[in-house]
Amino acid sequence: MKPMDIFEYTFSDFSNNKFKTMMSSLGIIIGVMAIVVMLTLGDGLYSGVSGQFGSLDLNQIIISPGEAARSTGLGIGAVQVKPPANLTDRDVSILMTTPGVTEVNPRMVTSGLVTFNKENRSSSIQGVKPADETTLSRQMAKGRFLSPTDTYSVVLGYNVSNGTFSRVINPGSTITITNPALGLSHTYTVVGIMAQSNGSVVSGDPNANIYMTTDGLKGFSLMKSYSMIYVRAKDVSSVDQTADNIRDALNRFHRNEGFSVNTVKSFSDAISSIFDYIKYILSGIAAISLVVGGIGILNVMMLTVKERTKEIGLMKAVGATTWDVRTLFLAESALLGLISGLIGLGIAFIVCFAIGKGAGMPMPVSINNILIGIAFGLVTTTIAGVYPANQAATLDPIEALRTE
How many C-beta neighbours within 10 Å does residue 356 have? Predict the structure, then answer.
């Protein structure tokens, strides 16, 4: 039997049994649609959340004082925690000579009560070493960045300058920062405004920060050690090795003190893995629809074999081989799966567009998700058609012709 004959016969059967074809394909349509939508929803969630992270700097390493509690193995609740390490300029010097490190940015992070135009607002404040902050210095919208001699000058994040107070703060304005707990305060001159930029859950929101020199913090704070040190590795591929080098270098001077060395890359990988799990769990749930659809097609194909027993006997009597009959029924189930998959895919596009529009996040249907959906539909229907095809192929033509 020629391939064209098989396709012609298959389409003829579909057109002659429209209701049966529609009902048998419904499960596959819903299954393919559900799988593609679930996969795309997982991708969309990851893209949307990633957008909230901002542009993650994957070759960045963050060193902070303190470490997580660890069990000593002495019993339930027994923990041993080293006191937090005091990160100082000595540690900065050590890091600058550590293999793999290209940039070191120490930060002192605190908060204070900011007064401008008789209005008070609480704000995050970071003490920096201006000479080391090459990235921040390139993000100015107005004025200039700090210089090492700017003891009582500040640079404001975009949101602090625009919207935090009733009036916009421009370079040349003065603000007063107070530490209510210590009773210390000092007046600072604004020398620059940062351009608006994306923050991340790792580095925080730079738009909400006030930057000053570490010496400038002495006007209202007693901080003497760094809250964190940002380190940049040569490239993403060397981040893990550089992090190990940093641990080894700092351990020599902080044997009895705790510190943490975390890479942005490990954080990004963990988030990606979580969303992969979510995506595939959702897809597994959706695949149940395909299994149900496959069972439906199995039942329909078995019924078709019974209904067409005499027809099968006639085909074999005029020369159709067992292979021809088996191929005919397999082609019918596979073609039903392909057509149902394409219809399900079309519905999935509409559903994804509607969800994306309603949720306000990107929901593009990727090529991989399309191929997975179509493949699942095609494989499910083909497998479901194997047993009925074998049943039809092994019918005895004489017994089949006798069937009324």
Answer: 18
Copy the structure tokens of residue 389: 């095809």
Q: What distance in Å separates the CA atoms of residue 193 and residue 191, rounded to the nearest whole number?
A: 7
Residues 6+ apart with CB under 8 A from 210: 114, 123, 124, 125, 126, 154, 155, 156, 157, 160, 177
**C-beta separation of 188 from 215 below 8 A:** no
Q: From 227, 253, 279, give the residue that closes a domain.
A: 253
What is the pTM for the complete model shown? 0.62
Q: Are residues 178 and 224 in the same domain?
A: yes
**pLDDT at 374 > cutoff 80:** yes
Question: Which residues on neighbouring strands pair with residue 107, listed in sequence order?
Answer: 128, 228
Average pLDDT of 344-352? 89
CA distance 103 to 69: 30
The two three-digit tokens of residue 59, written as one number: 């070759």
* CA distance linking residue 61 with residue 229, whole number of Å: 8
Dig out the tokens for 331 from the structure.
């082609």
| 236 plus 375 within the same structural domain | no
Structural domain containing residue 154: 86-253
Cβ atoms of residues 278 and 270 within 8 Å: no
DSSP symbol at 55:
S
Name the token pair of 332.
């019918």
